Protein 1
Amino acid sequence: MNTERPQHPHRVLLAILSLSPGGAERVVSELANWWAGRGTEVAILTFRGREHDHYSLNPGIQRIPLDFWRESRTPWEFAANRLRLPFRVREAVRAFGPDAAISFIDLTNILMVTALAGTKIPVIVSERIDPRHHRIGLVWSFARRLLYPLSRALVVQTHAVARWAGRVVPKKKVAVIPNFVREMPGPGENAFRERVVLAVGRLDRQKGHDLLIRAFAALGRGREGWRLVILGEGPERSSLERLALTLGLGCEVIMPGVVREPAEWLYKAGLFVLPSRYEGFPNSLLEAMACGCAVIAADCPSGPGEIVSHGQNGLLVPPGDVDALSASLLRLMGDENLRASLGNRARDVRSRFSREKIMAQWDELVVKVSGRNT
């Protein structure tokens, strides 16, 4: 049996709505930078302009910002642009001429499969969240079921979601490739753990920040000396701020918004919490563990249960259970030795989900679907 590592692909195009702050967007930038650094010709196609770019890219990466949304000034113009978009995508991708196009997130996936039908350019579609819980509407759901089988492969991040994927496309087309731990900056000379409970993620219902605020408030005097910091931005900011005020938390809850480098907070947080109602394969949890932070994660579908071993390298709580989350917070906040022990063992994610291991899987898949084995 040939056990040699597959070659890096020659030319790859990655497609996503934008490169704004987000887990999938970070993954796209990290994949692109890895391949570009190893001689692969890489392009990133987005439907929004460069002004939304948040992540730094290798200068050798070709950016193709179609800027579809900004061009639409009226409903009629929006409709006309929507009709033209598949043709613009098709033209841009064919001009780059990739061995394979990799698409991220449901609606982008549907559009890419549609646009590249008949071009003989293989399309790999990638789901970045649990489709069993993330609703996209009946029309788009039907389109996904209809069009995903036309792709060469469907990438999911967990074995739980792979079971769903096997009912959408032939099982031989399903690939489970989790996120890798990106190269993390060092902790700095003066880094030390503070009495900070940290959460990172978009401020929306899915991420469950409201549950964390309620659990933190339920601690009463047990939270004295601790602050809750939530990094991220989103549509629920106002309601979360009102909830914190209603529960009498005042300045104990801080929401600084999006930060350029979350690791600066992860190295000084006393513990990290992922309270999500559902997930894909949370980068923030991986990065917190890689930084040696003690973690509490909701055992939600899907991802945390394939990353955290309860009581070994972190704690798992039932999703949506405020009482259980509050009890776990109280346990860790009151036990510095346990926090240190869990944090030290949490660093095992650096080897379990190393960039080299995960990129070897991506290399193998892209080379396989492109048919370029030499």
Protein 2
Amino acid sequence: MIRIRIRALTPLAASGLERMVESDAGMAVLAGDEDGEEPDVVLAEVDTESGTSHDAPAEASAGGAPVVLLADDPAGEWISEALASGARAVLPRTVTEGELTATLRAAAAGLIVLHRESAAMLPAFRPADAGPGPAGEPLTRREATVLRTMGEGLANKEIAARLGISEHTVKFHVAAILSKLGATSRTEAVILAVRRGLLMV
């Protein structure tokens, strides 16, 4: 039996998600945080308008269970940050019952799942050791912001404080920037960015 904990934005949404999950005989919804049982998967709705979606996995699952996120904007730039912070799946709120239960099973098995609407974000989610990205691969808006702070000489901790994101997320963005620019260091990345007109000095 796969145990699911639901963290919805409203009681009505929680009720609807519970019905969808329990349509699968191999799944059970845990009642609340006080029951003492650890979930196998956390299903959490996120508010992408708040700008804190990338922190949702840590907030939703302090116990370390894999997190499946539901959002109105499953193709936004925030997805790479959410995945870097530990989310195992990102789905639209309009997901079907079959898609939801299949995703929960995959997350419980340790897989990462993205809905087809999120496919455009795949290039932004690259492991640090994946090598250089395709020539001319554009930086995301968040990466461009991190690059500007790198140009100011700020350390990861200072960038995290300024942008209101975790230091881990900053490291993820720095690695993506180095990969996309074909740089081997932060200094080289800034120099290349200036030469390419991506950064003004």
